[in-house]
Amino acid sequence: MNVQEEILTAIKEYQTIIIHRHQRPDPDALGSQVGLAEILRASFPEKAIYQVGGPVEGLDYLAEMQEISDEVYKNALVIVTDTANSPRVSDQRYANGAKLIKIDHHPNDEPYGDLVWVDTTASSCSEMITAFWKMFAEELTMSQEAARLLYAGIVGDTGRFLYPATTSATLRYAADLLDYGFDAPKINREIDQVSRAVARLSGYVFENLEVDSLGAGKVILTNEIQQRFGVVDSETSAIVSLPGKIEDVLAWAIFVEQPEGYYRVRMRSKGPVINEIAKRHHGGGHPLASGANAADLEEVAAIYQEIQTAVSAFREQA
C-alpha cells in the first residue's frame, strides 16, 4: 500500500477531519487546504470536515476559516497541507488529533506526522491534491468550488505557469480543473491585482533595488518605508517577484522590517540555489524560492553576501 492509499484509508476511517495549513497563507496554502476539504465534503457528506487557521490576510476571496473548539480534536484525523515545518502550522492544536498526516511539496526537512506524503517535484501542494483526486477518481468527488480553489493554488505557486516547477503534468491537472466551469479569468485577476499602495511600493522597489555586477539584488523595506506607502508586511508578498523582471537580476532578497525590529526575508532565484542560505537563517523553502529571518541589519548584510556568493558560483559553473 503506497502512502496515498494509506491517506485515503485514514480519511475513510475517521468521522471528523480537521485540515490545517501554514501561517500567513498564500493561494496554494488555502487552495490545497480548502480544496481538499471541499473534495472530502462532496465525497463523504456524512463526515464532519473543518478548515482551520489564522487570518487569511487579504485572500478571503478564496476561502475563510472555521472556528472549532478544542473538544473537536478528540478522535479526529488532522491533515496539514503545504507546511514544511511544524512551528509554521497555522494553529498549534494540529497536534491534538488522534492521527496526523502531512501533505507537502517542500523539502522534507522535518517529517512530522504519522503519515508523510512529500513530493518536491510537484509545482504546488494544490497539484498534489489534484493528483490525489485523479488517483482515486472513482471514490473521490471533485466539485466546482474545490476545482476553483485548487486551480488558484496551482496558479499562485507557479506564478501563472511561469516558474520552472511547471510541468506538462501541471498543465494537464489545470486543464482537468478548468473543466468544472468556474471563472478562471476572475481568479487570475484576483491573484494578480494589487492595491494602489502596493502599486506605489512597486515603483519604490524598482527605484531602490541594489544589484551587483553579477546579478545579486536586494532591497530593504524598513518600517518607515512601509508606513510611508501605507502597507503592512502581508502585502509586501506581492512585490517579491518584481526584481526578477529585470534581465540582469539572477537572485535577490526583499528584507521586510517587522514591528519587533527583525527582518522577514523573502528570497527568489532564476538559477542559484538559495534554500540552503535560508536554512542557515531560521528559514527554508524551495531551491529557487525561500524565506528566512534576519535579527538585524548585520544579518541582513550577511544574507546578501551569501546570495552574492551563490550567484558568483553559479556564474562560474555556467
Describe the structure.
The protein is α/β, with parallel strands linked by helices and 318 residues long. It folds into 2 domains: 190 residues, inorganic pyrophosphatase (n-terminal core) (Alpha-Beta Complex), CATH 3.90.1640.10; 121 residues, Diaminopimelate Epimerase, Chain A, domain 1, CATH 3.10.310. It has 10 helices and 11 strands. It has a 6-stranded mixed β-sheet with strand order 6-7-8-9-11-10. Strands 2-1-3-4-5 form a 5-stranded parallel β-sheet, with helices on one face. Helix 2 packs parallel to helix 3, helix 3 crosses helix 4 and helix 4 packs across helix 6. The longest helix is centred in the C-terminal third of the chain and has 21 residues. The chain starts with a helix and ends with a helix. The mean pLDDT is 96.
